[in-house]
Design a protein that fits this description.
- The chain is an alpha+beta fold.
- It has 2 domains: about 5-110, Nuclear Transport Factor 2, Chain: A; about 130-240, Roll (Nuclear Transport Factor 2, Chain: A), CATH 3.10.450.50.
- Helix content is about 20%, strand content about 35%.
- It is built from 5 helices and 12 strands.
- The strands form 3 sheets. It has a 5-stranded mixed β-sheet, with helices on one face. A 5-stranded mixed β-sheet has the order 6-12-11-10-9, covered by helices on one side. Strands 7-8 form a two-stranded antiparallel sheet.
- It is globular, with a radius of gyration of 18 Å.
- The chain starts with 6 loop residues before the first helix and ends in a 14-residue tail after the last strand.
């Protein structure tokens, strides 16, 4: 009997092949349809098998910390050690059993933060699958109400006052520390300015929100992963990446 490999495990193997150079893992990608949304990556300049084999010769290290599945999407929380250490989120869309589209958001690894947390530690196992849609809606509402509309007085409507674990390297645990960071101003404008929600992906008690805005005045992509318990946000991981100007893009597909 042929054993079916889950989409999560296929993506784990694909990302790990950056380290191993294993050409077999690349077959999950339909390169004839593949749409690349990393603006710094050429599209179609070389096959993924060739690219990953070349990257593997630089002795990279790849660790897939968490992986999730939401309908046609698989999303993963990863750490990379190439010439520098980075943390990333990788999102793949599947069509007819193969990956046909990819987005990511990567930043240098920093920390630990003032609460002693790294950018990746914490729970990894998905629970409470029956609450997926409720949790997706909760995260979207939080991002839109608090981060976009700026209603900081409503932080504790969404965030646990006693359990909130923060993995952002600039911020400590609890809603008070988050509120201070979100209220920070720079040159008369919010230092962290969320403007648009592009997508919220979810599985069980985890939800990833993909947003666009500015950080320190720079056009940026925000990827925020939340763990939810009993209708409350209790843990948060993220990456923030400055988006290169359009003139520097190596493909025309857009970051989002």
């Amino acid at each position: 009997m042929t054993q079916t490999i889950s989409r999560k495990d296929q993506i784990r193997a694909l990302l790990k092949s950056i380290e191993t150079g294993d050409p077999g893992a690349i077959t999950v990608v339909n390169e004839a349809k593949y749409i690349q949304h990393n603006p710094q990556t050429h599209e179609g300049s070389e096959g993924l098998a060739t690219l990953f084999k070349r990257l593997s010769l630089t002795s990279p290290r790849v660790n897939i910390v968490r992986a999730f599945e939401d309908a046609d999407f698989v999303f993963a929380h990863t750490e990379y050690d190439f010439s520098s250490r980075n943390i990333g989120f990788e999102v793949f869309r599947f069509e007819d059993g193969r990956a046909v589209e990819h987005w990511d958001n990567i930043q240098p690894r920093k920390g630990p933060n003032q609460s002693g947390r790294s950018m990746v530690d914490g729970p990894t196992e998905v629970e409470d699958h029956g609450a997926t849609e409720i949790n997706r809606a909760l995260v979207r509402s939080f991002i839109e109400t608090v981060l976009i509309e700026g209603h900081l007085d409503r932080l504790t409507d969404y965030i646990s006052d006693t359990e909130y674990a923060e993995h952002n390297p600039r911020i400590g645990d609890g809603p008070s520390a988050l509120g201070v960071a979100l209220a920070a101003m720079e040159n008369g404008r919010r230092q962290v300015d969320y403007q648009v929600v592009h997508r919220v992906l979810a599985e069980g008690n985890f939800a990833l929100c993909v947003s666009e805005g500015t950080f320190g005045g720079d056009h940026s992509a925000f990827y925020d992963l939340f763990r939810i318990a009993d209708g409350t946000l209790v843990e948060h991981w993220d990456t923030t990446e400055k988006i290169a100007p359009r003139s520097a893009w190596k493909n025309e597909n857009g970051k989002f």
